[in-house]
Write the structure tokens for this entry.
Amino acid sequence: MKKQLIIALAISLSTFSFAQKKELKMAEKAIKATNFAEAKSALALVEPLLVSLDEKSLSKYNYLKGVALYANGAGTNADVESALDFLTKSESAYKDEVTQLRTDIVNKLLEKGNKAYEGKDFGSASTYFEKVYNLRSQDTIYLYYAAATAVNAPDYDRALVLYQQLKELGYTGIATQYYAVNIENNEKEMFASEQMRDFSVKAKTHKDPSSEKTSSKRAEIVKNVALIHISQGNNDKAIAAIQDAKAENPDDINLVLSEANIYYKMGDTAKFKELLEVATEKEPNNPELQYNLGVIAADSDQPDKAMEYYKRTIDLDPSYINAYINSAALVLSKEEGIIEEMNGLGTSAADDKRYDELREERQQLYKDAIPYLTKALELDSKNTEAASTLMNIYSVLGETDKYKEMKAIVESMTSAN
């Protein structure tokens, strides 16, 4: 009696196994027809007795389940997460297929991440970029993108976690870019890889191959971490983050500038100026540093010193438009004192004489400001601030033709906006 029961049970299990394999074939057929809903239904019939499947059939189930959940990219984020788990379980038996599918998933995630970023949905973009990194951990650039977009969201707590991961990985963002000159148009072009560049050179479509290293993102990362701490009221943590980075890279001027920026955010302009001067000693020919020192000097009521910095900025970079604008503003700032004195004069002969002297000084200020404003407008033809100021100056100076010309320019700018 026992023997008959054992035989009957064996026959029963064999029947179940055959049925499950049939359902797997149905699911496979549905997937080939991109009918993922039908495939899921077929696989659901297999699930109650997965323990009875042999290793080969179980791998097939896991693979098909992963494909069905992914649904060519139509699956939800949760579906994709589950799909990846099932695909991992089937990888030993379906190595090539799983590798190809993972590549497709990465590409779809990147597509969604970029679309979210373009739509300014930074939170979603950050999530997608992090998923890409989790699938391709060798590409740490996507973890960096995830952190940067989390800052834009803003989701500072999440950004700090991601930045901490980057720090632990020793991420710098330094990469090698590959270039060659296009023989047809003689322009330097960048290639996606060294192999593609070398192939183009061998094909004689390009010449003069070269390689360049990108700058480190370390300072930017530390600065963002510090600024997040400041926004959360953790100034001590902000300074500690910078000091930690400087200990690793004491000669990195970008870290000095980041530290200066932090003190500026904290309202410590004295320390800000001190650090800018340190940076200037390291890079005396950096126009940005000279300009910022000019701004500080102007804010500190040191107009002559500020003008020296702005002139130095212009010498180093003749196209630095803000240096021209601020130089003009410094010149015109002296007008207030002149007007105040003019309004306080009486009607005596001496007062009349002084009035005329002050009027001449005022007009000279206008004349001194014109070259700076003209240059600014030359560099940026849509600069309404420069154009409007010039229009008013020409009006006061009585230069009617130039006033009318500038008035027409200002009106065209206004109508365009």
